[in-house]
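S1.2 Input.
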Amino acid sequence: MGRSLRSKVRWVYAGVVVLVLALVLAQYIALSTIETRLQQGDVVAELLQDSLEMRRFEKKFYGSGEHGDLAAARDHAEAALERVRENEAALAQHARPGELDELQAVLELYRTGLGRYPGLAGEQRELLVESIRNAGGEASALTKVLSQRERENLRTGVQVSRTELLLATSIVLVLVLLGGWWLARRILAPLRSVEDQLRAIGAGSRRRLTAPNQDRELVSFTHAFNAMLDELDARSQDLRRSERLAALGVLVSGVAHELNNPLGNISTALQLVAEEGRGGDPALLEEWLQQAEGETARAQNIVRGLLMYSRQQPRSPKREECRSLKTILDGALDLIRATLPADQVTMRVDDALQVTVDPERLQQVFVNLLRNAFEAGGDDVEVRIEAQRGRLADLRPGPGGHVVGDLVVHGQDLSPVVRISIDDDGPGIPDAALDHVFEPFYRGRDEGSGSGLGLFVAQEIIQDHGGAIGVSRCPMGGTRFQVWLPCECGDRA
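S1.3 Output.
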């Protein structure tokens, strides 16, 4: 058995947490880098400020001659020199090779020159002043270059950090979307498949639930649900068995009644023959014997119908397969062609229309319905057969008539079904008799014709297939029989 749904959700949750932590870490690193660059910028700015101040006090000293200005210039030079030495590593990121050494050298020269200035005079002082000015100018120029590079590096660093943050956020977003897609594919899609199967079962499909993958929860649910369906089928079979026993009681009662009449008539006719003896009127004897023979044939017909009904009862599971409906109908017409005018049947059925049935038993249904149409309407009757596939809501029976079968009575409107209509232009069935045509031993024609079991057998077979059968008045003026069957061939294709 495969991994559980819970573990998959946990893995996705853990992945999202890791991605969020990675994004937070990336943001922290980016902000720390910017903070470091800002600190370096403060050092460079202070160094630049020291260089500017020392030059300002130097120039002020040349104008005023105040030794305090000279001391202030020297203090700022010493502060700048000390700042370079203390922050050499930070400043090195903005300086080219040798620039820091050069800066320290000119600052040292500048500071030393300022210290020597009071002790010199004349030409030596003038040469020293020139040296101090050159050193101060170089120091100021170098610090300005460092400041410009620091600003450029800071700007570049912010842009890089922004790009890295955008890239990291995009990567996290893509990975989260991929995780959601994987979660939907591995969890939501199987659940949706189970939901579709449950909806089909609720609509009347007799297929079992299949697990879309090997996730433990889905496999366990599938096994439990199929076990429930098996239990329901078993109980349904028990109910059908009880119904058959009840039907058997009706059959026994009907057989007793149906056979009692012809047997009584035979007994009466034979008693009359026995009383007349050999000297009786030959015409009367012939009439009584023919009457006994007719009643014997009637009893044989009843027994033959019972035998046919018993042979049609399933003694093993139905052999269902996906077959062309038109092929089954053509086979039914071939079976009646020798005794009934099958050429008077007009059929409009799509060759591609298929149903999942036991073909031999369904063929017997159509034989019974066609034979009933011709026997009730006579040799001149016209029969029309049509078939449609669609939703039950669009193919429900119209008002009037009588329908038996849970598919139509309790079926859901979205259930896919195939409806077969068999219409004739015969005399039709009285409205009062429509509710009784599927009862055993019911005859819409004269009492002496038929076994009264054909339509009863037909509705039994249709209900065994999970379908329904109905009878109503036909627009052609005769009778309309309609059969509804669950449509599952298209779902499997």
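S1.4 Remarks. The chain is about 65% helix and 10% strand.
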